[in-house]
Amino acid sequence: MISTGELKKGATIELDGKLYSILDYAHIKMGRGSAQVRIKFRDVRSGAIIEQTFQAGTKFQRARVERREMQYLYNDGEFFYFMNTETFEQIPVAADKVGDAAKYLKENDTCELVLYGDEVIGVELPITVELLVTDTEPGFKGDTATGGTKPATLETGLVVQVPLFVEPGTKIRVNTETGQYIERVQ
């Protein structure tokens, strides 16, 4: 069991027979009465986002999820294929289960699949990934008085704002949680 005081983003709980992933939560203290907790959930199977309020101290059933390190192989438009690096077993994962992680995945990258029993319920990426810039406009010296940015298309199709000195063919590090440029990689 998990109490409202032990909540954290990304935790998976069971509520009314469904699996929910916690996206955000806020403790609310009213002038009179007991404290409440407003939780924003994502239904793991359907993808629907729900927001509910509970009394402080409410307990939830923690879902027993397993994280397995896998290597991303390829996608065929409908499924993304991952390989267990120990058993070499290939697992197809539906595109809707991969979600936004698809923007950061390139062939042979390592990530973690989140499993509930034998069912894949999500993909967890490392905090940062290194991607190659495939297309961006040229940046001209003196364009701005302060550090300016421009859009750049990366090898996975993701578009991020990068500094003016970044050119096509440059490898950059991107934060997978915010989708922002961090630094140029040598």
Textual characterization of the structure:
- The chain has 186 residues and is mostly beta strands.
- It has three domains: 2-62, Roll (SH3 type barrels), CATH 2.30.30.30; 66-124, OB fold (Dihydrolipoamide Acetyltransferase, E2P) (Beta Barrel); 128-185, Nucleic acid-binding proteins (OB fold (Dihydrolipoamide Acetyltransferase, E2P), Beta Barrel).
- The radius of gyration is 20 Å and the shape is flat.
- A six-stranded antiparallel sheet has the order 1-6-2-3-4-5, with no helix packed on it. It has a five-stranded antiparallel sheet with strand order 9-8-7-10-11. A five-stranded antiparallel sheet has the order 14-13-12-15-16, with no helix packed on it.
- The model has no long low-confidence stretch (mean pLDDT 86).
- 18% of the residues are buried.
- It contains one helix and 16 strands.
Brief rundown of the structure:
One of its GO terms (biological process) is peptide biosynthetic process. The chain has 186 residues and is mainly beta. It has 3 domains: 2-62, SH3 type barrels; 66-124, Beta Barrel (OB fold (Dihydrolipoamide Acetyltransferase, E2P)), CATH 2.40.50; 128-185, Nucleic acid-binding proteins (OB fold (Dihydrolipoamide Acetyltransferase, E2P)).
How do the strands line up in the largest sheet? 1-6-2-3-4-5
Range of strand content: over 45%
Helices, by number, come to: 1
At the first level of CATH, what is the class of the largest domain?
A: Mainly Beta
Any guess at the CATH architecture of the largest domain?
Roll
> Can you tell me the CATH topology of the largest domain?
SH3 type barrels
Find the count of extended strands (DSSP E, 2+ residues): 16
Percent range of helical residues: under 10%
- Helices and strands, in order, run as EEEEEEEEEHEEEEEEE
Q: Whole-Å distance between the termini?
A: 46 Å
Radius of gyration: 20 Å
Major pleated sheet: 6 strands, antiparallel
Mean pLDDT: 86
Which of globular, elongated, flat, extended, rod-shaped describes the shape? Answer: flat
Low-confidence stretches: none
How many structural domains are formed by the residues? 3
Structural class: mainly beta
